[in-house]
Each structure stands twice: as structure tokens, then as C-alpha cells.
Amino acid sequence: MAISILRTTANTNTYDNISKGGIDNVITAYSTEYANTGFRYWVSINMVTISGNVFTTLYIPPNPQGHGIINLRPHIINSVPNKTLIDIALTGPYIHNPIKSTGDAVVKKDAMNGTLQVQVWEAWDVAGVFTQDPGEKGPQTLEMMAFQGWSNTGDFYVENCAARLTAGFVDYDRHTFYQRLASKVPVSFRAKAIMVPTYQDVFGIICTNADNGTYSGNQDGLKQFVHINFYQVDGTLISTDTSIGVDMIQGGMAFIPAHWNNISDIIGIPPNTAFYTLQLKDINDSLCSEEFLFYIEDIDCRYEPIHIGWIGKLGGWNYFTFTKKSENSIDIERTEYKKPYGNYANLGYEQVTPGMLSTDWNEFRQNVSRENMVTKYLTVTSDWISEQEFLYLETLMVADVVHWVYVEEEVPIPMIVTENSYIMKKERNTTKYNITIKFKYAQDYLAIAYTPTL
């Protein structure tokens, strides 16, 4: 008697190698006993998250070749956590501005990822009698990390260590905002950094791998820190900060403060700063990530900027600020019913004319509102954007977790992308685009309370 299981779509030791969407994630089980009458593969799938455990038990018959085929995707699609409120004990508890009292970056396990354990035993169902693991050999076990996102499994090899520099769980790269920002920064910075626009008073993080080596083959496990340089517009270095630490924990994901408001709240931004660079290093001063360059853009004072965040294809938070005209709108669906005319309970009672209906015409309603369903929408418009930015925004268009990172309330407002097609406007003889997206507030009635001036 022998049983074995293996992954057929990825290596077993790759960090975060199961996504809730995208391709199917299949495990194959094989037992030498598969030809016996009533044989079954007894499968236990356990997803461990910050909210608790989610168990699934399956009894799978072998296919003609004797294998048990286990597709994990339908079992994890609604199980991977997405915690907006990280920890109420933190100075900044919400996902877009989490801050420890020490000033370090917040590192969590099972807040946006979860430990996925798959166990397979041999079992028999013969004449209505079910026998599990009769030889008491115990299960064959695989343990992995599951996460938000929908890209192919191989894309999630994001070690963020000295042996492998990556950009973490973000969907943008060196090409995304290059056309917009390259002319605004000195030449020496253009090729070495991932340029990202930011605006005064907006929040945003970078999600990176903070595993200590448990689920990461190459992760070195050394504590890291965020190396930030502040520069004037001509590239003159103003100051450097290395005070934000990043602990490595088992299965950890780090939420690195990145955008203007995050950096301003934690360490402050020096006067005359035009842009700043951000990069992870370890305690040996070795580089552990790609370098990010955040350029502080001016805001069009005619409109309130709408800062949108969403979980992208790699399972981390991405951001884009819509700087042109935005509108709030409300749709109301009304349902009514009609009551009988008058009060039949008091028919003819103490009436001057017997048989008349007793009616208080000031209070009585013949047509009555049963329920008014309120749906609120937010329509946003971008400035002219490049083709690469438009490709980046495609991940927003299909995202199922979207927030309006509303600065004044310092809390995210959950939104839903409503449109199935999107309007592009293209300038003549150029490659610039303009995009309009309509969002629905995820909370119908609570949406009435959100009345910012747009």
C-alpha cells in the first residue's frame, strides 16, 4: 500500500504559489490500491486565515489511470482573506495606512494570504461501510500559501531578497508610468527605478514578501528596512531615512508605506522635495528589492482627485489617481402597495350617516411606499494617459476588491466596478488615452453618508 501526491501546476516550495483566480491549481494523488473495489481518495483541504479555519472534505474516486484529481481553485476562491482593518491596536490600522507605534512597517500573515494545507488518505466504501485510512499510515500532506490575484502561478515568485530583486506584489513596472514621468526627473534616475506618480495627501502601500524562508526557497530571513532618499527637482539629495524596519516572519506579507501621506505621517517629507526613492535593504545593507521612485505630481485644483486602490493580478494593492471631473449619482428603486380606501374596521361606527368609512384624510395613505432601494455611483475620469497606463488600468477593470481611498475620512470606501465596457478617447496622431469608469458604492445605505464635494 502506497500513496503519493504532487502539484501539477507549480513547485511545492514556491512562496504564495496558489491564487484564488486565473488558472486551475491541480493536485494529483496516486495510490497503488486504486483498483480495489470501492476505493476513494479521502481529501481534506484546510485554509488557515486571520478569521479562522475553513475546512473542506472530499471523497474522490480514481480516474481510469488510478489518479485522484483535486482542483483547489473552487475551494479557495472565496476563502482567501482581504482584511481592510489590519489590527485595531496599530497606530494606523487600515490597510492603506498601517503604522506600528515603533514606526516599523506592518507585517502580517493571513491578512491578505492564507496557509493552505491539503491532506490525502486512502479510504474504501464497500457495501455501505466506509473505512478511512485502514492501515493508519496517515496522510500525504502539502502546505502552501494562497493569496488574492489571478495571474499564472509562475508570476508569484517574488522573493524580495538579496538573491532576487523584485517589485513585490504590484502590477506596474518600469514602463507603466515612464512616458508620463521621464521628462520630469533627471536622466540618471530614469533607467534605474520604477517611476510612480503620487500626490499630496494620498495614501498607498507596496505589498512585498516578508516570509522568513518557510515558504520561500531563496528568502534569507534577515530583517529588512526601507531605504528612502529625498531629492530636489534637479536630483540633489536632500536627506536619507532608514528608520522603517521590516520584520521577516513565517508566511508574512509586508505592507510598506509608500505614497505621500504614508511617508509624511511616519517620518515627514523635507521641504523642496520633488521626488523620493524607496528600496528595501537587509541588515547587511544588501539590496532586497527593485527601486521605486515616487514623483510628487501637482493637483488640478478644479477637481477633487479620486484615489482608487485595488487588488491586482499579483495579489497586492495597486493605485491610480483620477484627476479630472468626477460625479456622484444616486439611483432609487421604489416599491409601493395600495391600501383599501378608508378604514373598514370602524365602518359605520358613530357615523352620522351609517355605512360611511371612517377616514383621517390628513394621515391616511392609499398608496404606500414599501421600500426604497438606494444605489449610489461614482463616475471618475482620468487625465490623458499613455498606452502603458491604460494597460495597467485593465487590472482595475477586472478587479473584485476595489477601494476609494478617501483621504478626508482616512478610511477606505469599498467600491464595485459596474461597467463591462470602457470608453477610450485618443488624441489624433498620438498614443494618449482618456478613460472614464463608473463605480458603485458597495454599501447601498451607508453610501448616503459619503457626500464629498467633487
Could you walk me through the main structural features you see in this protein, from its secondary elements to its overall organization?
The chain is mainly β. It has 3 domains: 3-84 and 113-153, Sandwich (Immunoglobulin-like), CATH 2.60.40.10; 158-326 and 376-449, no CATH class; 336-370, no CATH class. It has helices at 73-76, 178-181, 187-190, 260-266, 387-397, and strands at 3-7, 18-19, 26-31, 39-49, 52-60, 67-71, 106-108, 113-126, 129-132, 140-147, 194-199, 205-209, 224-231, 237-246, 253-257, 275-282, 292-297, 306-311, 317-322, 327-338, 367-381, 385-386, 402-406, 411-417, 423-426, 432-441. Strands 18, 19, 20, 21, 22, 23, 24, 25 and 26 form a 9-stranded antiparallel sheet that branches. The protein is globular and about 80 Å long. Residues 10-16 have low confidence and may be disordered.
List the uncertain runs: 10-16
Number of domains: 3
Dominant shape: globular
Secondary structural class: mainly beta
Helix content: under 10%
Please outline the major beta sheet: 9 strands, antiparallel
Q: How many strand units?
A: 26
Spatial gap, N to C terminus: 69 Å
Oligomer: single chain
Round the mean pLDDT to the nearest integer and report it: 83
Question: What is the count of helical runs?
Answer: 5
Strand content: 35-45%
Radius of gyration, in angstroms, nearest whole number: 28 Å
